[in-house]
Amino acid sequence: MRKILLTLCMLPLLIWVQGCAPATYEIAGYTGSSINPDIPVPTNAKLIENIAYSDHPTLKEGVKYELKHIGGEQGLYPPMDYFQKLADTGWVELEEEQLGHVHFLKKDTTVIAIEIREDTFQITELVKGAME
Fold first, then answer.
1. Mean pLDDT of 18-29
2. pTM for this one?
3. Phi-psi label, residue 55: left if phi above 0, alpha if psi -120 to 50, beta otherwise
């Protein structure tokens, strides 16, 4: 009888804890970014905006995508599998350059910044020599 009573008391707590689990994102494969085909982007990410930086001294161009829950709650949890895919395709993260939600990666002479938010991410290509 005690076990049944204990189970009934714990059931609402278990349901509440399960409901508090963070929402996750899903990546259904990858395609090349519209600003640079060497930058993989999840195929199920929705293009929101193309960004031109015609008068900025260090930023070349950017693109913003939407993918629900890509950055976790409040953008605090970078998508490790996405960063692994970037690494697998030759992008090296410049960890010492990271600024909050913005991660910098380099491949050959190209440097990009990826800003991860809760439901969006933005990829910006920097002008050659901007990080030197």
1. 67
2. 0.80
3. alpha
